[in-house]
Design a protein that fits this description.
By secondary structure, this protein is an alpha/beta fold. Helices cover 35% and strands 25% of the residues.
């Protein structure tokens, strides 16, 4: 059972400026929910109840979102709009939230290491990069990964086949397929050029990681882009046969890009409308 999920959320979101000048990119809405809430709901779907968020300057809206807004609740109480807060209210009632700040932007590996104080060394934990919005009905990607982790007992990364023209944007794995869609990873490269990519299997922003990663990260020197890369630390675990890559079921939208953000918005809009139609028919 995975108990904790870490959300690195200190990045600037420069691709969405000026929208992200004062609003954290994780708070940009897909239809009517901020990106990070989708990630938290996916974690809850995997049985996780402890949410740890690595924030930074200008990110206080994240903390306020996962807190009670008494004035708003008092205003809406007893009105037809009260139900609109039910979802977030139940998240707040069910989960605990803890925060720490990353003071320097030195890459994803550094952000994860900053979260060590919230995660500790006892248990494997999940990581969600909220930019990657995943959807798979009521069996979310993290829940699928938790099952893979329960079988193999080591680190699990979610992968997806991407066109070679896109591969330079991702961490890329290679390994032996030990079950359909499940690979024992033996190579991992962060943002390779298409010509040297070890495969077309890209890591997306979902991980379940054993806590020895923190000690490895402490020793990890800057890699691609001059940043401390989580991929480089995971490679050290992979060299010991302790990383599984899992081709997940469902859809993933890269909401860190404008195109992916728009696709996710359209997709979620239709999901919401279909759901509303279904509920209407049930009445
Ligand atoms: C990060 C990781 C990369 C992974 C990607 C998934 O990159 O470093 O390995 O493939 O997330 O979204 P970023 O998108 O932060 O550049």
């Amino acid at each position: 059972m995975i108990k904790k999920c870490l959300f690195p959320a200190a990045g600037y979101g420069t691709r969405f400026l000026p929208a992200t000048k004062v609003i954290p990119k994780e708070m940009l809405p897909i239809v009517d929910k901020p990106l990070i809430q989708y990630g938290v709901e996916e974690a809850m779907d995997a049985g996780i109840r402890e949410i740890a968020i690595v924030t930074g300057r200008g990110k206080r809206a994240l903390e306020d979102h996962f807190d009670i807004n008494y004035e708003l609740e008092a205003q809406l109480r007893g009105t037809s709009k009260e139900s609109m807060l039910a979802g977030i209210r139940s998240i707040i009632n069910t989960c605990s939230f803890s925060y720490t700040r990353q003071t320097e932007m030195k890459g994803l590996g550094h952000a994860v290491l900053t979260g060590e104080t919230l995660i500790g060394h006892e248990d494997p934990f999940a990581i969600v990069l909220a930019d990657d919005l995943c959807f798979n009905g009521d069996h979310g990607v993290l829940a699928q990964m938790a099952e893979v982790h329960a079988r193999h007992g080591c680190t699990v990364v979610a992968v997806e086949e991407v066109p070679l023209s896109e591969i330079h944007k991702y961490g890329v794995i290679a390994g032996e397929e030990i079950e359909p869609g499940v690979y024992r990873v033996d190579a991992m490269v962060e943002k390779p050029a298409a010509e040297v990519a070890p495969s077309n299997l890209a890591v997306i922003g979902r991980y379940i990681i054993t806590p020895d990663i923190f000690d490895i990260l402490r020793e990890t020197t800057p890699g691609a882009g001059g940043e401390i890369q989580l991929t480089d630390a995971l490679l050290q675990q992979a060299k010991q046969g302790r990383v599984i890559a899992y081709k997940f079921e469902g859809r993933r939208f890269d909401c860190g890009s404008v195109e992916g953000f728009v696709q996710a918005t359209n997709f979620m809009y239709h999901e919401k409308m279909d759901g509303a139609d279904r509920r209407k028919n049930l009445r």
